[in-house]
Fold these 2 entries.
Entry 1:
Amino acid sequence: MKCVDLRSKFSLYIDGALSDLEMALLDGHLSDCPLCREELDEERRLRSDLRRLGRPSIPPAVAESVKFALRERTSEGRPSIFSTSVSDWIPMRLMPLGIGVAASLVIGISFLSMMFAGARSAGEIISSDRGRDTRIMLTPGNAEGLSDISPTEYARSRMSVAGESPSINPNGAIVALTRSLVGSRMRDDEVVVVANVLSNGLASVTEVVEGNSDAKTMADLERALQADGSNTPFVPAVLDNRGDNVRVVLKFKTVNVSTRTGSKR
Amino acid sequence: MVFTRSMTLDDEEFRNAALAAEPLSARTTYESELLEKLKANDADAFDRFVDSYSGDVFSLLYRLTENADDAAELTQETFLNAFRSIGRFRGESGLKTWLFRIAVNESRNRFRWWKRRKRERTISLDAAIGDSEMTLSDVIADRGSSPEDEVLSRERRAALNSALLDLPISFREAVVLVDIEGLSYEETALALDVGIGTVKSRISRGREELRRRLRDS
């Protein structure tokens, strides 16, 4: 057998993965062929160096975060439906914001209505403002009751951040859209668009970062952003005390919330 | 003259030999007990589960993605996926091998995700991981600081890393599992959901490709 044929077996040879017969054949050849011995040494060196390449350690915070996420999914010690893990989960998946983007608005649509109805009163919007990210959780329960809050009241409740991060209109088309998305169980993972929010509360998409495979969903979104009258997607600029033209990243995300009997996704 | 096959045992091989020498029944009992508690939704068991295997899973995912943030996120996805599937796990393989199988699938999904978006990824060893102040260099240098490691020069390490990154993904998966994570061919076959013959072929061709790339670099 030629050297080149035998060399193709060196990898398995050094791992001891050849049959006894093949091992004996190679041993016999190696005792006579210095070039193949050299080649074999190079193969051994590669394997040895790979093993010395080092295995990265997991950062302690990552391991803790995994434990925390799992602990929440077990039956004990789950603090609440809008737990830290859910709010942590969203920023982890935030797309890198583009240059010049003033704010990002993440709208998580939860698919768990029954428990939620007991946990939160209808009409409540859960929002968390931190810096320029705004996360708003909409569920069937609270989306239905949003009309109980006036645009003025809602904008007032988030006055400290509204200058940079426009308030959605509780009676507007985006809220109505999320209600229909909940009903249709938005299949794709997420929809992310960059939009300009104008002074009158209307908005226009400037870039689709992550679309939805269902063209109707995207068309509905565009329509919702341009719905006028009392259904404008955002409150007028004057209520937010924000600029006339604010660019936002809008992210629609299905947020899956664990139940007491297991987890949904 | 009688030619004898030379054999060297480095630290890694000693470690593997020690593991192999450990009574199988003891390991099986530990895993069986843990598995039973995991299936019973025992929160403490899940902590132990993470303590025991998250380092291995992260290390594998880091090598497959070459991105610490992705590895961190996919480690969480892997464990959450394991949590959802643990009821269906029948112990066909060890827990670690089973987790590796999930992790490999997660990394493949992520790879497709990036490919779909045609994103370019740049990797800097000085990049911070998430919100932490740690960098990739810190993370990698943290482990395996045996004298042998110090012998591996920075240039050789960089060349190996670069050659690994260039390997077709199917070869990289096999080489990483066998040569870096220390799995047997059988375990690798289970983790990759392929036959032993395929693992042998991927290892041979993967190492051959690595050597070729190292020679050309």
Note: Residues 34-51 of chain A form the longest helix (18 residues).
Entry 2:
Amino acid sequence: MKGKISSDLIRGNTDTIVLGILRTTDSYGYEIYKKIIEKSEGEYELKEATLYSSFRRLEKEGCISSYWGDETQGGRRKYYKITSAGETLYERNKADWEFTKNIINKLL
Amino acid sequence: MIEKVQSYVHNIFEGYQESQQLNDLKEEITANLLARIEESIANGKTEKEAFQMAIKELGDISEIAEEISLNKKYEVIDEMFNRNPLDKKTALGFTVATGVLLFGIITGLIVYFQMGSLFLAISSLFPFATISIAAFVYLGLVQETVYEYGMKKLRALLYAIATALLIGGIFISIIVYLERMGLKGRIESLQEIIAFHNGPLFMAVSVLIPFVIPAICLFVYLGLTEKDRRKPNVLTEYYRTVHHANSKEMMVYGKLAGALWVFSLGIFIVLGLLWTWKLSWIVFIFTIGFQVLLEAYYSNKKSHISI
């Protein structure tokens, strides 16, 4: 039986997923979106709107910072960059997830 | 295609409070939608299909727009209601200054009605008025408001000193004039005054000059070195609409005002030397008039855009 994806569970981790992508390189909305789809091998359908909320939340908390790209054609892109607070949050969330995963594996 | 996407995004956010944040979000979304559409077209989709797919994938944006819009509203409400109340010291200062001024006015009136002498009345008003008005200037400038930070104490003190000099000078010259005229409040006839007043007027002006010139120089110096005290939230509001045009404008204004005073000082000296000191000071009255006009012109221009 093929499993169904639990969107709620993933949505709760959107911020961490975004941080994980920004750890490798600065990026903008659509590129981040593509990378997430790619990483999930097409299993996870994410809406762009979810990303915008996540960017705003992370930026407010000082986990990412943003700057405008210098594209002239087709509007400037807003790039995001992870901060050291963001790195810390990522590490902590990842450790928490490993811990939770183990427990749930034991329980289910 | 760019226009199509822009107008689509614009329509999504129709009805939300305009703000810098919202405009940034719109621009960000537009750029991302365009990137996606471009890629779809490169993969062989038609423009129409690509556009439809992109907006389908966008999802529900209203939540975040709502949040931004709400923040903006809070900001506005904050500005409207969160006026910083005066701190106790400043309030006390204003009260004392008002008391001093009132005391001076009442004393002046009593003296005038008791002794019938305008000269004595003005003389008794003079110290109270000078001190209290200088105090008002000082307190007003160091006071932090919703839109501006308070001025530095030393700078405000210089403004207060310049004001005191100017007002003190005017008072003293009026006192000198009245004393010389010996009017004592009773004017017999206009002819009498005109026939008699050249000497006293000359004295009054010569007394005025040493006060007024340093005061005006101080004002010009302070005006030209004035720093922007507006708060960041006011500034972003301001730059968003005016960009850089206005800072340039203010620089032009500062230079014009400076030039105006330098010219008038020059004319004053030349007229005084070549013609008569008695009348050359009138130049300054014109200068003040021009300065006020200049100020009115620029502040009018400013208020149009920024508020």
Note: The mean pLDDT of chain A is 86.
